[in-house]
DNA sequence: GTCAATCTTGACGATAATGTCAAGGATACT
DNA sequence: AGTATCCTTGACATTATCGTCAAGATTGAC
């Protein structure tokens, strides 16, 4: 059939996200996307222009889900519990699938050198937003932390999450990652 | 001239390291290596077999230098000072060059999915050794830390260094990375 | 019912990278 | 000197990807 768009855009983007997540922006090819979505290469070019445009849509969908999940995990009265929830969430997120998919944001950040300004911008964006979420959580902690300290510490937390993503790629197991995260929280929040 | 090897292997590997560092194992091509070293593609194939073999040699050279520098930076009586030195070293290491080269180990780890077992092994190796170096430093700290704790904490430190490497790729400046590292050390070691 | 708009499809040309190889030629050993 | 060895070089076949496009077909508007 022709003449009218034959595919559901949301489904295509969701499937594309899966492909990008498993292969990365750089390694995923239009062929991969075509095969996974069942939409011909030519149709994808016609509908979106190029691979990166598809990626940006998929990545936006991803960051939306991710930040919402992060906000939800961090929404706990006790700061330490909130942080534990948060790390559990991201570790499961990156070790899910078989083989594990890893962290899309981190993978994309590492491709930064060969990506467009727009892609880099999105990565900075999601990291910045994550930092704010964590900063809010830390600021809400009972007591003696000043706002500036909370913000600096929030960036340390974000940095550590990126480290976990790398360690996952290096072969560390979910269990090992969780142990590191727990050790980190204890050390920073004072066990 | 022909008949006898026309190039100095150490120089070629050093140059190859530079290429891999700037482009990554995956993105660097034999053409790139040939152009940078001045050795023809065919000669490189003849001498080393394939790109990955060249990479492994270059990577070994790199990790040797890196771990030595890390050991040197950590060789300070005061644990906190040792850690500061160490982080300064790795941050300069990854922000050096223009544009900055980033961290080769981290970049390679992220390529894990598309790399051979051998490459993955080297990455795990260098991270493991780094963990041991840091563990030794932490164990030597005055006082109350048990060996098991030191080892767990060492892995947290390694993880954080990986996070810094990602943040660098995401666009954070040397100054910002140093601030995060300082905040991290203070938080963990008790400021 | 006609027609313009637009989606699908398969094909095409261009580019880039890989790995291989035969020919050519210098070296070193005997 | 003769000869085997080994390196260099350029060419080749292969494969993969990209982006484009013309032809074909259907829908929806008028």
Describe this structure in words.
- Two copies of one chain form a homodimer.
- In chain A, 76% of the residues lie in helices and 0% in strands.
- By secondary structure, chain A is mainly alpha-helical.
- Chain A has a single domain, classed as Tetracycline Repressor, domain 2.
- In chain A, α1 (9-27) runs antiparallel to α2, α5 runs parallel beside α8 (147-170) and α7 (117-139) crosses α8.
- The longest helix of chain A has 24 residues, at 51-74.
- Chain A is elongated.
- The model of chain A has no long low-confidence stretch (mean pLDDT 93).
- Chain A binds chain B through residues 23-24, 26-27, 99, 102, 106-107, 109-110, 112-114, 120, 123-124, 127, 152-153, 155-156, 158-167, 169-171, 176, 179-180, 183-184, 187-188, and chain B through 23-24, 26-27, 99, 102, 106-107, 109-110, 112-114, 120, 123-124, 127, 152-153, 155-156, 158-167, 169-171, 176, 179-180, 183-184, 187-188.
- Chain A binds a DNA duplex (30 and 30 nucleotides) through α3.
The CATH topology of chain A is Tetracycline Repressor, domain 2
The tally of beta strands of chain A, per DSSP, is: 0
Q: What does the largest sheet of chain A look like? A: none
Give the structural class of chain A: mainly alpha
Total discrete domains of chain A: 1
**Rg calculated over all Cα atoms of chain A:** 19 Å
Could you give me the name of the CATH homologous superfamily of chain A?
Answer: Tetracycline Repressor, domain 2
Q: What value does the average pLDDT of chain A take?
A: 93
Strand content of chain A: under 5%
- The CATH class of chain A, by name, is Mainly Alpha
Helix proportion range of chain A: over 70%
Alpha-carbon distance between the two ends of chain A: 63 Å
List unreliable stretches of 5+ residues of chain A: none
Q: What kind of assembly state do the chains in view correspond to?
A: homodimer
Question: Helical segment tally of chain A?
Answer: 9
Largest interface in this structure: A-B, 41 and 41 residues
SSE string of chain A, helix = H, strand = E?
A: HHHHHHHHH
Shape designation of chain A: elongated
């Amino acid at each position: 059939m022709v003449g009218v768009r034959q595919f559901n855009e949301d489904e295509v983007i969701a499937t594309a996200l899966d492909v990008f997540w498993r292969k990365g922006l750089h390694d995923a090819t239009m062929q991969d996307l075509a095969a996974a979505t069942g939409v011909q290469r030519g149709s994808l070019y016609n509908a979106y222009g190029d691979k990166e445009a598809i990626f940006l849509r998929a990545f936006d969908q991803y960051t939306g889900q991710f930040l919402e999940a992060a906000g939800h995990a961090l929404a706990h009265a006790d700061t330490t519990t909130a942080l534990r929830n948060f790390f559990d969430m991201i570790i499961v997120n990156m070790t899910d699938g078989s083989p594990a998919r890893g962290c899309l944001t981190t993978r994309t950040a590492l491709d930064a050198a060969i990506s467009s300004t727009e892609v880099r911008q999105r990565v900075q964006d999601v990291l910045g937003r994550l930092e704010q979420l964590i900063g809010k959580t830390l600021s809400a902690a009972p007591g003696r932390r000043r706002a500036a300290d909370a913000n600096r510490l929030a960036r340390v937390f974000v940095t550590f999450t990126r480290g976990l993503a790398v360690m996952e790629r290096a072969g560390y197991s979910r269990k090992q990652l969780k142990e590191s995260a727990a050790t980190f929280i204890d050390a920073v929040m004072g066990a």
